[in-house]
Amino acid sequence: MTMRSKWITKARISGVLLALCATGFAATSAQAQGALPAPGPTAAAIKQRGQLNCGIDTGIPGFAYQDGARKWQGLDVDYCRAIAAALLGDVEKVRFVPTTTPTRFTLLQSGDIDVLIRDSTHTFSRNASLSLQPTAVNFYAGQSFMVRKSLNVAKAAEMNGATICTLAGSSLELNIGDFARANNIKIATLTFDKSEEAAKAAEAGRCDGYSDDTGSLAAVRSTMQKVDDWMILPDNLSKEPLGPYVRSGDDRWRDIVYWVDAALKTAEEYEITRDNIESFRTSTKPAIRRFLGLDAGLAKMIGLDDEWVVRVIKAVGNYGELYDMHFGAKGLQLPRGQNNLYSHGGLHYPLPFR
Questions:
Q1: Element spanning 321, H or E
Q2: Are 255 and 128 in contact (CB under 8 A)?
Q3: What is the DSSP string of 34-92?
Q4: What pLDDT score does 5 carry?
């Protein structure tokens, strides 16, 4: 290469770098001036409607169920309320839409619901073939079996010839089939649209047990007439990372749902609770000030106001408080395990607010 060619090549590279720097500077300037894209069509429609349409389970303790006063409770339910608090400023501006396993994704695709938060596993095929976007994982689980103690089995591989109740239209039946083939045994399945129907069938003796993710198994076991007659086997047939889904094509809406989840976990990381959050308004720590919107700037990037994090935590608490209420000491008494924060040996690792 001649000296002239080398000079031209360097000039071109310098020109590209200058262009990239200029683009980055322009983007930063636009952000600083507040000239950012609108939050997207989904958020705009929700604001105009004045209500979030949130798809949940038809009824399973821990995730979504109606209490004695017919009020919806559960981890997924509180996630719906948290999103409403962030976007609409009011946790009560939610229409809860109970969905069955076969209909849940269709309702989201059709626009009948804005977000699906229904103990649904994030998988490759659901993302790629259904035009749906998984957002954050709000509960790590693994599929297992709940069986009658009278079956006298200690592990799933001993269940040759058993019949298991499970849910139709889910990955549960596929996982059971894969497990049976891998262990050279036969397990028959009996499927239902709702977990409560499957549980009643198991209790009536139509099958030897029930299969679902571990969180749901703890919930179903708590509803059995004779809880002590049932046990959950230690085997995990699969990985079941559960969390919200949104429709593909609206990245701003996906961002809002994602960062609401991150806010719940970050609040726990900073030891910010529903009761003490006001005391953090005087914090001098830059990370906490950014997180709570005390130093303005981040929220507008996804179309929210600076108070959204404070509203969310004051409304529902942090992730640890939610887990304790629905699955921990105040709920189903299911150990947190992998649902702990990374700092306590778990898998939840919220991305930084900066």
A1: helix 319-326
A2: no
A3: T----S-HHHHHHHHHTSEEEEEESSBTTTBEE-TTS-EESHHHHHHHHHHHHHHS-TT
A4: 43
- C-alpha 136/C-alpha 350 separation (Å) is 9
Q: What is the pTM of this model?
A: 0.83
Instruction: Give the position of tokens 């009020």.
Output: 71
The answer to whether 309 touches 291, Cβ cutoff 8 Å, is yes
- Given this model, what pLDDT does residue 297 score? 81
pLDDT at residue 171 in the model: 84
* Residue 309 and residue 263 in contact, taking contact as beta carbons nearer than 8 Å: yes
Please give the Cα distance from 165 to 118 (Å, whole number).
19
Low pLDDT (below 50) residues in the chain: 1-36
CA 209 to the chain's CA centroid: 27
CB-based contact 118:212 (threshold 8 Å): no
Q: Is the dihedral of CA 178, 179, 183, 185 positive or negative?
A: negative
Tokens of residue 153, six digits: 């089995």
Q: What is the pLDDT of residue 38?
A: 60
Tally the C-alpha atoms within 13 A of residue 215's C-alpha that lie toward its C-beta: 30
Contacting residues for 133 by C-beta, under 8 A, at least 6 apart = 127, 245, 246, 247, 248, 254
Distance of CA 141 to the CA centre of its chain: 11
Residue identified by tokens 């649209």 is 193
- Look at residue 169 in the predicted model and tell me its pLDDT: 80
**CA 79/CA 62 separation, integer angstroms:** 12
